[in-house]
Amino acid sequence: MSTGQWAVVLGASSGTGAAIALEVARSREFNVFGVHRGRYLEQAQRVEQDVAATGRRIVMHRGDAAIPEGVAQGADALLAAAGPRSVKLFVHSLASGSVGHFVSGGEEQFHPKQVERTFNAMAHSFLYWIQALVARDLLAPQARLLGLTNPLTESLLHNTGLITAAKAALEIYVRHLALELGPKGHRVNLLKFGTVMTPALQHVYSPEALAKLEAAHARMNPSGRMCTVEEVARFVSVLVGEDVDWFNGATIDFTGGMTLRLLDLVLNAPR
Ligand SMILES: NC(=O)c1ccc[n+]([C@@H]2O[C@H](COP(=O)([O-])OP(=O)(O)OC[C@H]3O[C@@H](n4cnc5c(N)ncnc54)[C@H](OP(=O)(O)O)[C@@H]3O)[C@@H](O)[C@H]2O)c1
């Protein structure tokens, strides 16, 4: 068991979660309890080294954070490492969902198993973890609990309906948990941001497709560029501050205006 405050980051081995783990260790001096399943081992080791280099403790727990049994194991390991009332920040940064269609009739049509897995990873696990943290008295006074989302609940992308439905459920979990935990001094919010370049994206897309993606975001975003994981991570660190503790049950828009000009782009696209 250790002294000091802890950040629990689900999905700490890659992308947004990795950046948040490092940022809050550096700027908030939190120890980090990260969870992942081990698909990005090199990146996980880098996060461990980088956080350790800040002088903070890091425990990287390997397990399935999306199912109740995995949550119980993870929360028990967290209790052993961190002790009661130690978790100041909890961030749900799991990304694991199926793309496809609801009624295509073909192979792309979502199977109930895909629906269940996507909702477990992208929505229900947020609830399961918070239940587990509360049951073990792990939350520090005035803890900050954060879900992450994207602008796809407003402007739809044809094959991401299942993930977006899970994000809608996540938003409602956030609001209800804010109601239930607010009187105890805790804050539960949802941070919405636009596309950021992550190793997962770089793995999935070819360099040409990535260049196209970047160019499209440069046209969409009023700033003329894509957001970065470091920018998101720095803002998460801001959200831990006492000055912003009036945010509760909020969906905080950190999209940089990503969808503001979509209609303009469609109506005025060169033919
Ligand atoms: N990337 C974007 O452009 C973007 C934009 C807005 C919002 N977001 C949101 O930000 C969050 C993180 O996205 P990202 O793109 O940064 O993700 P990412 O780079 O793909 O990383 C996902 C992380 O989750 C872990 N993970 C996935 N399923 C898991 C499970 N069942 N149990 C334990 N660990 C699991 C992965 O490790 P393992 O696979 O090894 O388990 C990895 O550490 C998501 O909620 C996403 O919707 C992302």
From TrEMBL:
Molecular functions per Gene Ontology: oxidoreductase activity
The entry's keywords: Oxidoreductase
The protein's name in its UniProt record: Oxidoreductase, short chain dehydrogenase/reductase family protein
SUPFAM superfamilies cross-referenced by the UniProt entry: NAD(P)-binding Rossmann-fold domains
Family listed: Belongs to the short-chain dehydrogenases/reductases (SDR) family.
Species classification: Bacteria, Pseudomonadati, Myxococcota, Myxococcia, Myxococcales
Pfam family, one: adh_short_C2
